[in-house]
Design a protein that fits this description.
Blueprint: H1 2-23, E1 37-39, E2 42-48, E3 51-58, E4 60-63, E5 67-71, E6 74-79, E7 82-88, E8 91-95, E9 104-114, E10 117-127, E11 132-135, E12 139-143, E13 146-155, E14 162-170
Antiparallel strand pairs: 1-4, 2-3, 3-6, 4-5, 5-8, 6-7, 7-9, 8-9, 9-10, 10-11, 10-12, 11-13, 12-13, 13-14
Length: 180
Amino acid sequence: MLLSNRYIVALLCICLIVIVGCEREEEIPSSKPPPIQEFETFSTQHREEGILKWTLVGESSEVRREKVVVQNPKVQIFKEGQLSITLTSKTGQLFRIGKKKDNLYLKGEVVGVNEKGTLYTEELQWQNKDGTLYSPTEVKIVRGDSTWYGTEMVANPDLESVKMSKNRFTLYPKDEEIND
């Protein structure tokens, strides 16, 4: 009888362990590691040979190993020390290491404004080494009453040189500069 009591106690312990184990929620490992640091506000700037190339200001940020993820970023890009374009979006990323180092990636309601016009898209990259803006998605550029739509845009930051695929546009001479 003593042996059977031990089996009953062992069986009860096993049942208790199974019941307690089933009631616990499974912890699902996160697909990405937690950020190294988080900031409520964030700002940085990039200079080359002492010349300001761009500034980045955001409401909050997460510093990760390879990049900084910024909420509601405002980016100002400079050419030869002069402001070329101001960009805003819902989120942004600043790459810290690798081939993309010092590149910026903006996503979600991206708007770019300068004296030449306004740019609208959902994704935009500042390719720092090349000094170009790139968007794989549809882009709309507005100058006065003129509008230009296209995809796969490559442009300089002052929007003087813009190349796009799948172009659609309505242009008015009054909105375009004519160089004599």
